[in-house]
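Components:
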Amino acid sequence: MVPRYARPEMTAIWEPEAKYRIWFEIEAHATQKLAELGVVPESGAKALWDWWKTDPGIDVAAIDAKEAVLKHDVIAFLDWVADEVGPQARFMHQGMTSSDVLDTTLAVQLTRATDLLLADLDALLGALERRAREHKYTPTIGRSHGIHAEPTTFGLKLAQAYAEFDRCRARLVAARAEIATCAISGAVGTFANIAPEVEAHVAERMGLAVEPVSTQVIPRDRHAMYFAVLAVIASSMERLAVEVRHLQRTEVLEVEEYFSPGQKGSSAMPHKRNPILTENLTGQARMIRAYALPALENVALWHERDISHSSVERFIGPDATITLDFALARLTGVIDKLLVYPERMQANLDRMGGLVHSQRVLLALTQAGVTRDNAYRLVQRNAMKVWESDGRLSLLDLLKQDGDVTAALPEAELEEKFNLDYHFKHVDTVFERVFGGA
Amino acid sequence: MVPRYARPEMTAIWEPEAKYRIWFEIEAHATQKLAELGVVPESGAKALWDWWKTDPGIDVAAIDAKEAVLKHDVIAFLDWVADEVGPQARFMHQGMTSSDVLDTTLAVQLTRATDLLLADLDALLGALERRAREHKYTPTIGRSHGIHAEPTTFGLKLAQAYAEFDRCRARLVAARAEIATCAISGAVGTFANIAPEVEAHVAERMGLAVEPVSTQVIPRDRHAMYFAVLAVIASSMERLAVEVRHLQRTEVLEVEEYFSPGQKGSSAMPHKRNPILTENLTGQARMIRAYALPALENVALWHERDISHSSVERFIGPDATITLDFALARLTGVIDKLLVYPERMQANLDRMGGLVHSQRVLLALTQAGVTRDNAYRLVQRNAMKVWESDGRLSLLDLLKQDGDVTAALPEAELEEKFNLDYHFKHVDTVFERVFGGA
Amino acid sequence: MVPRYARPEMTAIWEPEAKYRIWFEIEAHATQKLAELGVVPESGAKALWDWWKTDPGIDVAAIDAKEAVLKHDVIAFLDWVADEVGPQARFMHQGMTSSDVLDTTLAVQLTRATDLLLADLDALLGALERRAREHKYTPTIGRSHGIHAEPTTFGLKLAQAYAEFDRCRARLVAARAEIATCAISGAVGTFANIAPEVEAHVAERMGLAVEPVSTQVIPRDRHAMYFAVLAVIASSMERLAVEVRHLQRTEVLEVEEYFSPGQKGSSAMPHKRNPILTENLTGQARMIRAYALPALENVALWHERDISHSSVERFIGPDATITLDFALARLTGVIDKLLVYPERMQANLDRMGGLVHSQRVLLALTQAGVTRDNAYRLVQRNAMKVWESDGRLSLLDLLKQDGDVTAALPEAELEEKFNLDYHFKHVDTVFERVFGGA
Amino acid sequence: MVPRYARPEMTAIWEPEAKYRIWFEIEAHATQKLAELGVVPESGAKALWDWWKTDPGIDVAAIDAKEAVLKHDVIAFLDWVADEVGPQARFMHQGMTSSDVLDTTLAVQLTRATDLLLADLDALLGALERRAREHKYTPTIGRSHGIHAEPTTFGLKLAQAYAEFDRCRARLVAARAEIATCAISGAVGTFANIAPEVEAHVAERMGLAVEPVSTQVIPRDRHAMYFAVLAVIASSMERLAVEVRHLQRTEVLEVEEYFSPGQKGSSAMPHKRNPILTENLTGQARMIRAYALPALENVALWHERDISHSSVERFIGPDATITLDFALARLTGVIDKLLVYPERMQANLDRMGGLVHSQRVLLALTQAGVTRDNAYRLVQRNAMKVWESDGRLSLLDLLKQDGDVTAALPEAELEEKFNLDYHFKHVDTVFERVFGGA
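Structure:
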């Protein structure tokens, strides 16, 4: 986790105090159910909850001090709670293992983190839809291979991004369900010393599903899937960031990241305005992608469990969610405040002298009875002149002067082939597919 | 693709002939719809289907020869079809781009490949369930950190694997839906020269959904997600393979990969029987995992599309699916024919002199009124003697001789704590969770 | 391996026949040394070499047929050799294990592959140097963040690439040494049944060093390092490919991949010329990078060895080297025939109305006694006008009209600040650093 | 960075104060050279160094406060220095860009980090050599595929690890040289406003080499190589960690991580002693491996530079070096204090009833004139009985009772084949290769 790429709400989820609060809740809910089942006295559960109602602070330093001696984090915590609550606290943790607490806590942390990420995605989707509708019919050149192809609209570009992040949202909802399970199954997961009813109770109270079969730990294929989904989201984020970077290039300059009045782009070069936010996002996407790898390697734990996954998760749990939260918010800000230059888009569209309409002329010639080969040749011989003139010549003008062309296509028809609107007749169809009716 | 790790049915999906057959079907369905819409004559579509009904062979060599000259695979194919069908073929591909054909074809290939993989998973699940039920109550030692922990059953181990692959199956079904889309949207995806109805028609005929918004290409976040799911499945496969490798170790030897009568484990050492199939699977899992990476990097195509994804997909499309198909089948064979040694499991369970029951004695002492600390100390001082005897001493015997212990726990109660069945009372609960009722 | 991305010389290294030839040589050299040591009769070695001198074909199908029965590739091969050579062949492989043959063979294959790759790099370096010298003083705009920064030369761009690939070459030489070792050390690597002298002899004959300590296998950290170096080379390749793709963008168009007279850029759009070779290379770079991962995971073999690395290497051995060989050759072709447009470079340089000289004016004002803050303000107020005019205004003109500026800097001095050559005075220094004297 | 996996000396390198100290030194050395060259007055450089000699504290908070306003870290720092030093500070940074400072600083940080890592490796090598010599002739079973193969010594196992980390050390020395370069070349790296002599001077003072050709940034193939080497080291670390984990398994128990007197292995199971340090290392190795990926993706910066690498390096610079430093120290501790149980090794060696000598009998029978096939059959028929007896029968006994065997091999010769020492005759050869003479 890099502090400058972290936002407080997400960071808080991963702080010691938040973790200990979840630990307590899991232990207290379990104790309560154990009391109901008659395994421990009711007074044990009551004492815990009574103390909790006093809204006690968590003394992280005191717990740390105990851990330094005991070399066991969960025992240190239980000890500290016992100090606070008194002898009734001794009924906590009956028949449980540390993993029951730790793995269920990770599930709670990841679901909370995911809820923030879902809200981030919603904000991003909101910004994308707003700007897409704003530029639904703003003409711009579509590019394949970085080369001008045919006209499209800037709204369509953003609609594509919307659809992509909407898929990401659905994936994240599914990923949340993957990791939202509770395991309170005791040593090697046999429930030998703790009844499945305890697990069901804690699960329900913590907003989780029951893990059908745990082996002291929750199986790590769930987490692998989760971090793989974050990696996919990061990659989609990178796509949109790269698009902005491309469109802000000096020679293209169809959009710019918002540049605040007093900002300096470069200490040395007073003329610079750089797409630094999206460049920054590109790097963050690389990191989030990388975190999926150790998560995948974590799956093959030995036998009922080993603890190699633990050090990995101490890194990637916070680092992947905190960075993605920051990055999605940054991306939303970029889209929200993006400076869009429709005149420049039109100028770029026009700079190839109308070459972007070559396909329509080709098709029209074919439909007018010219063989495809001949039609291709006719268009190409004029198109190449325009290409070589670097757009100073106009394709339409040249075609009008080409007798072989006009023999097949009257001038008026020819002109119609250079009509931009022709390309936008299905924009509405796509918008309906993406954003639904209206 | 490594031929020795490939099975014919999956390989066939990726062979040129299969690809060309899909190309033809896409083109012919599109032409048919174009005819219905009045864009091309009915005779154009009819000619294509009439020829197709003759069940013509695909002359891959002839198409290749054309591509060598034309440097364009789709044009080469269309040319060859025109040679075969005659002039009516010229109405094919009207308003389409090569990507319309290529991306939709990849969708068809991946869905077909996925159907095979789903069948592979079903076979694996079948084998796992059968063996799990067979060994539902076969006692074996549960191990955490590679160290004996508490008893479990071999059936529970397999039930865990079943639940994991069942999750993988659900993920693969979702992944199939991700990539099962059809795009026939023309240059930069605006439908300028081809109506959305054509796309809908082809999609329906090819068993695909319509891609809501394509930009000449189907967005690659879909494929990234798909290959990420294969990577998760590979990791689960690795987990089970590693489990078998561990259990076959000389010192453990609780299971063995089937060893055919005439087989030689080693040319030099006549005594060897190695878990080579699961070792081999471990390596294959590493490969399938690696293929997810370039798929993730493919997402950030430039503008409406570039073609950097294409070379990646020529590798990972076949390599990931063919290898996973082979590996799943191999894993199913391993499970199906796995030699299981219950006596050896029991012997291993017993080799620690009953130490695996230490927790129960600890809990019983606590419940009998001994403080947890004292109880721990009482158990530990006897447990350590057993440990140091390398299991030659018996924990139960020592405890019976320890007056402090028997003062709290009468001998009969003590003996009950060493009852294996105690650990298995919830096996049925877990089986019901995993396999459903009955 | 994808056939269209493979060249015959590299592919041949990985074909069965080549592998079997190396197997034979290793076995024959070992037998010869065993004979010298008196372990086997001289006649055994002689029979092998006599047969080899007849230049016998390798009957791959016959060996395959034997392997199908024996399920052991090395035994199948030895059997076939015995069939061909006769009873004297029985002295082969004395005290050796299959790994001795397999690992040493992989070392030979990788060193041969590396020699081809080194030649590929030399060709690329040659092309880069030639084009760098050709364009040593061709002015072009340097871009940071995709935004115009200050002038540089196209030759400097290529010199940078040269220096980068020159480092790659040095890394590859080191990587070759890493994997060029021979192990003939018998079961678990103790030399119990084969003397170290045999290893030394085979190593020397096969052009390898002796592996200091093997454990039946050559340790896989060597191979991990090797494939990591290929991944770095691939990444440098991607950098240069991406540079070409950027420079070929319609709006930039400073260079183009060679476009042959009859070539068609697009079936639908007659005006297109796409940088498909470098896009293709970008995808290949992703693959080669991915292959490093399983190589890294291969390192942690269990105990003296397991065989999980083997399936991985059957993929990445050929796939990484064949693809990199193809890609380097393709990249060399791109550079060699690259169409370079100096006029367009100059036009792009000029399109910002001289803004790229803003730093020099700033520095000059400062040196003329204006405070840095004031100087920055003076330059910026004129620069912003030019920026907003989209380069139609000229910075020099505006500055000349700004009394505050001319008060500090006389017109002639001001003009000198817009001298392009000023930026190139150290081009020679850099060229000397990169290419050496002269 | 996870605080519990961090050691202070390495962490200090990455803290803001350390970074600012390096920034100052670079700026001050550059100013000094600029003064020598007559570009700035001598007094400017003197003022800086005079202030520095007062050993001023770095007020990180003050600099942060400035950055919050200026949004530029380097300018904020220069501003703060100017506040401290006075007007003479205005000559700093003349003709330089921020990248000159940032990239050179990263080089200094990475070289310092590397020096710590090299010391870590030296400590590990020391521990490995000491324990290897201690157990040079401690017999233990060599295992291939996790299955008993033939005898080796525990010292040989450690010698292998020593050789592997010795290679890692050499790689790290090379990697250090890769990233130890200084670039002070100004905007887009042309030296237009700063003479190459300044770069040479700063490089020499900071202990770096001159970067032959930079483009405002130091090329990132250098850093990719660096982090790839860390990934290889991590993988070797994982190998040794996994070896310890295997050897500590309950059924094997040939070694144990040191277990301090008061330590508790499990809160629930008083009998447990788990290899948690090496499990922990396994997870850390996964992380360090993952960090190489974004470093590889960083190479393909756009044109002369973009800034996407920067966010990546803010993560992996500290995270990879701090974690590896911690992990190497932890591994050294594990090896240093490793509890080794030679009796248990001998017991494991013996538990297969002498099967581990089967190859020697096979070879002896062959040399006594029995055909290889017959010899194999003779050994195998006795070996399988021993195997099935789970090592209760003795291979030697059975062979002595097999007339077909004794017909070829007299009893005394047979017995000699079961001599352990036979396997250790070349231990010394290997030790000499690994550790050098004596």
